[in-house]
């Protein structure tokens, strides 16, 4: 997805530069917030910073060859003159299109103004943060029409509530002006109303559960409705609050439907209107209760003045259950792991990019619980200030973690794995039902394991702070990764939960290095929280393996911090633990292999030095690589696990296997795989391999020189290697 955006941007620059076009974004005085957001937008900054790029004017009265008027509602007279004859109105206190009024304040509307002398658009709405995304879409639309001479998404109007919920279509000229052409119109709003309008209700005193007729009739759903109703009643008493009307709880069809209609996904999503929308899974009742508690809290009028984490904690104080335990049972583990938030973080007005709800919500609940009073209303009225909160957290650090029985010994077969990458699409991501089809195909290939890969973002190699990429359905969300892991295990596959760091500016994790001791301490604090966050989720999913890091070569000198991190992960995850070492100068010098279960290697070793070498040279190179891996297993006294191994479909795939791009060659990709797998076999020192890579849904351009191996000759090579012949029944036992 990111590469595609880059190609699009380069093409955009070349096209607009050749035509010497100016696109004006007219943002009037008094709306500086919108103008500043546009100027600071990373994509626009990149575009404006290039000499050969297009000229884009942003500001009051900006004019160009194409113009985009950006206005907050109500729309002023400078634009309204262009709206004559169009079926849109803004004077009723709501956006009105084709006679239908839309009152949601989060709505944004883009309208092409056909009466204007040049290509002109109006983008309007009540919320500046929503307007930016639609301005970018119109800008791309204008540029795309010039790049390809066509419009791949033709629309003259687009009304949007979420990134995926819209009404769009084209104008049709009439004698009086223009009207909506209903042929081919997309109207998600009407589809949403029909979807929810057709649901059945399971009534209760405190909770009214709604679902499709088939789901609502299931005995286990009616029992769930009873439990949720009883729980909401208990919560209301603890505030205290009299529920004048029941809380609406909706069972969604799947996560893509939830994301399309709500704009976010989750085990349970609490909407601004106070309804809870959940996805059925027997392990997620704690999430349902937490969301219902949030609705009760809001109904009591107690939520609006709380900091985000205290609001989470207050809801958890009401709901009590957290990932299979009472929330209090998590506190000694959080303290022992060193992942407690600071008082400043808990009381901050905004959630931090590297904050962790699984780790911090119990801590916030404990702070609420420490306040005087028996009811939640009393406790929230007596919340401790920053100094008292700091003292409370200091007391938590002294909590004793009692030894717990580990899970029974788990035996792992030889892992015939596939690195399962997420396609960043609402309908095709980790959270989507389409993953079942992909797992079925991988099963037919002979795979018995997948790795799932959530990400954090780091702006620069020396930036000491991570940003968790878990808040959008088009990135690897917590709930999406959890869903992908659960569905893999339901398909009979083992799961390697493998968190990654993504860096900008074409950098990679091997360049991460801080400039000072203070920055190192801050980076490891953020990274330890990232690892612990995902170790908890991996354990909850039932995953069998966990990777503590991926190719972080310049951090490995910090041996003490890494050993502390491994101990932290072991507090949350009971399965096998590894580290995905880089093939070049990383795996062979990691100081902590004795603390882990596998020597993990991202095995992009070159097999030969030229594109046109004889096949025998590639074979000899592969034999040399296998010998190095065997020696590593012997040296470290651990089985080797190839956490990544793959070749792009490019000419000379064996020369620099970590690269993609260049001249397409599926034959060279297959030859490289064949050479390595023939040399590798399945010796006792090898725990398994994870081929790089397959996506969670189909991806376009089959002749792109990338790492995909499905539907290419390499697929047959992988299938042959994955055949379970010559495998020992068990290659490794964890714990």
Written description of the protein model:
This protein is of the alpha/beta class. It has an eight-stranded mixed sheet. The protein contains 23 helices and 33 strands. Mean pLDDT is 90; it is low at 1-20. The longest helix is centred in the C-terminal third of the chain and has 25 residues, at 517-541. It has three domains: 2-193, Chitobiase, domain 2 (2-Layer Sandwich); 202-397; 414-734, TIM Barrel (Alpha-Beta Barrel), CATH 3.20.20.80. Strand 30 (599-602), helix 21 (615-636) and strand 31 form a beta-alpha-beta unit. It starts with a helix and ends with a strand.
Put the structure in a nutshell:
The chain is α/β, with parallel strands linked by helices and 735 residues long. Helix content is 39%, strand content 19%.
């Amino acid at each position: 997805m990111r590469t595609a955006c880059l190609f699009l941007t380069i093409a955009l620059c070349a096209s607009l530069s050749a035509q010497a076009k100016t696109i004006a974004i007219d943002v009037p005085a008094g709306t500086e917030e919108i103008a500043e957001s546009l100027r600071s937008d990373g994509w626009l900054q990149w575009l404006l910073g290039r000499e050969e790029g297009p000229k884009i004017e942003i500001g009051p009265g900006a004019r160009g060859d194409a113009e985009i008027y950006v206005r907050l509602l109500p729309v002023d007279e400078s634009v309204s003159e262009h709206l004559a004859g169009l079926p849109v109105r803004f004077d009723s206190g709501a956006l009105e299109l084709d006679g239908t009024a839309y009152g949601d304040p989060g709505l944004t509307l883009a309208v092409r103004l056909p009466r204007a002398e040049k290509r002109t658009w109006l983008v309007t709405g009540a919320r500046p943060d929503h307007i930016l995304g639609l301005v970018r879409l119109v800008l791309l639309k204008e540029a795309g029409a010039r790049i390809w001479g066509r419009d791949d998404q033709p629309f003259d109007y687009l009304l949007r509530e979420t990134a995926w919920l819209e009404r769009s279509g084209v104008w049709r000229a009439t004698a009086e002006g223009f009207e909506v052409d209903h042929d081919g119109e997309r109207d998600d709003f009407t589809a949403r109303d029909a979807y929810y309008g057709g649901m059945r209700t399971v009534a209760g005193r405190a909770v009214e559960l709604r679902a499709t007729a088939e789901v609502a009739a299931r005995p286990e759903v009616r029992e769930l409705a009873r439990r949720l109703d009883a729980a909401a009643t208990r919560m209301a008493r603890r505030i205290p609050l009299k529920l004048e009307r029941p809380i609406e709880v909706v069972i969604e069809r799947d996560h893509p439907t939830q994301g399309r209609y709500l704009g976010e996904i989750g085990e349970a999503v609490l909407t601004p209107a106070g309804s809870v929308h959940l996805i059925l899974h027997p392990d997620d009742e704690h999430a349902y209760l937490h969301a219902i508690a949030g609705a009760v809290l809001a109904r009591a009028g107690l939520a609006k003045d709380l900091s985000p984490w205290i609001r989470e904690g207050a809801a958890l104080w009401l709901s009590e259950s957290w990932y299979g335990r009472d929330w209090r049972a998590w506190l000694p583990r959080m303290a022992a792991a060193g992942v407690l938030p600071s008082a400043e973080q808990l009381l901050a007005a905004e959630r931090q990019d590297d904050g962790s709800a699984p780790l911090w919500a119990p801590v916030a609940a404990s702070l609420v619980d420490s306040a005087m009073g028996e009811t939640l209303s009393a406790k929230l009225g007596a919340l401790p200030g920053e100094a008292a909160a700091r003292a409370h957290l200091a007391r938590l650090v002294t909590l004793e973690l009692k030894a717990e029985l580990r899970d029974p010994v788990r035996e792992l077969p030889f892992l015939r794995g596939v690195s399962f990458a997420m396609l960043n699409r609402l309908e095709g991501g980790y959270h989507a039902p389409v993953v079942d089809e992909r797992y079925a195909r991988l099963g037919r290939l002979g795979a018995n394991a997948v790795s799932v890969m959530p990400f954090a973002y780091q702006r620069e190699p020396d930036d000491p702070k991570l940003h968790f990429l878990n808040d959008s359905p088009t990135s690897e969300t917590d709930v999406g990764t959890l869903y992908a892991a659960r569905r893999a295990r339901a398909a009979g596959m083992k799961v390697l939960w493998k968190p990654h760091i993504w860096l900008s500016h074409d950098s990679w994790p091997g360049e991460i290095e801080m400039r000072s001791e203070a920055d190192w301490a801050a980076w490891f604090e953020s990274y330890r929280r990232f690892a612990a966050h995902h170790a908890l989720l991996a354990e909850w999913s039932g995953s069998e393996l966990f990777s503590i890091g991926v190719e972080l070569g310049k951090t490995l000198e910090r041996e003490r911090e890494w050993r502390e991190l491994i101990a932290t992960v072991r507090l949350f995850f009971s399965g096998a633990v590894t580290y995905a070492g880089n093939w070049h100068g990383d795996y062979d010098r990691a100081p902590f292999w004795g603390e882990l279960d596998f020597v993990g290697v991202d095995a992009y070793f070159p097999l030969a030095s030229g594109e046109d070498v004889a096949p025998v040279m590639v074979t000899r190179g592969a034999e040399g690589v296998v010998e190095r891996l065997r020696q590593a297993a012997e040296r470290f006294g651990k089985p080797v696990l190839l956490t990544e191994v793959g070749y792009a479909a490019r000419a000379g795939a064996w020369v620099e296997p970590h690269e993609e791009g260049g001249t397409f060659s599926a034959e060279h990709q297959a030859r490289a795989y064949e050479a390595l797998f023939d040399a590798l076999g399945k010796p006792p020192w090898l725990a398994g391999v994870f081929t790089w890579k397959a996506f969670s849904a189909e991806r376009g351009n089959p002749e792109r020189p990338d790492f995909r191996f499905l539907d290419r000759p390499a697929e047959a090579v992988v299938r042959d290697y994955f055949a379970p012949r010559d495998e020992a029944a068990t290659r490794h036992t964890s714990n």
